[in-house]
């Protein structure tokens, strides 16, 4: 037995297989153009992060809920002809009866500070979240 012819035959077979194997299933144009878009969604659980709240003539606070960092001075400004309202917190802090101008309170500690108007009650309420 001569081992050489067998080897040659195998080599030819391997060559033929590799050549014939190159069919048209070449992955052409399958470029994965996945663009990673980083969408920064501002999650405002209280709806607003504004430290400026308007006391509306419609007997409401706008925005009614706001989230601010510690140390923020939040200002309630009475709209024109807003009428008499109070900004009275559950913890006791209150503006007293105010019909014009601005009431401010600085929040140094984290927490949830619900407030309402003593005149209009629960229907005129809001929350300051400090975190
Ligand atoms: Cu009121």
Q: Any overview of this molecule?
A:
Helices cover 14% and strands 34% of the residues. It is globular and about 30 Å long. The protein has a domain of 65 residues. With 131 residues, the protein is an alpha/beta fold. It is built from 1 helix and 8 strands; from the N terminus they run αββββββββ. The strands form 2 sheets. It has a 4-stranded mixed beta sheet with strand order 2-1-4-6, with no helix packed on it. Strands 3-8-7-5 form a 4-stranded mixed beta sheet, with no helix packed on it. It binds copper (II) ion. Copper (II) ion binds next to loops.
Principal-axes shape call = globular
The distinct ligands, each listed once, are: copper (II) ion
- Sequence stretches where pLDDT stays below 50 over 5 or more residues: 7-22, 41-46
- Total of helices: 1
Helix content range:
10-25%
């Amino acid at each position: 037995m001569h081992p050489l012819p067998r080897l040659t035959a195998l080599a030819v077979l391997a060559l033929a297989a590799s050549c014939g194997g190159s069919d048209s299933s070449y992955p052409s144009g399958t470029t994965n153009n996945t663009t990673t878009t980083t969408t920064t969604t501002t999650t405002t659980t209280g709806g607003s992060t504004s430290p400026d709240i308007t006391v509306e003539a419609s007997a409401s606070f706008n925005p009614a809920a706001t989230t601010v960092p510690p140390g923020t001075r939040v200002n309630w400004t009475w709209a024109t002809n807003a009428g008499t309202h109070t900004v009275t917190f559950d913890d006791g802090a209150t503006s007293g009866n105010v019909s014009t101008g601005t009431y401010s309170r600085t929040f140094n500690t984290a927490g949830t500070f619900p407030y309402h108007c003593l005149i209009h009650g629960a229907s005129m309420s809001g929350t300051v979240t400090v975190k």
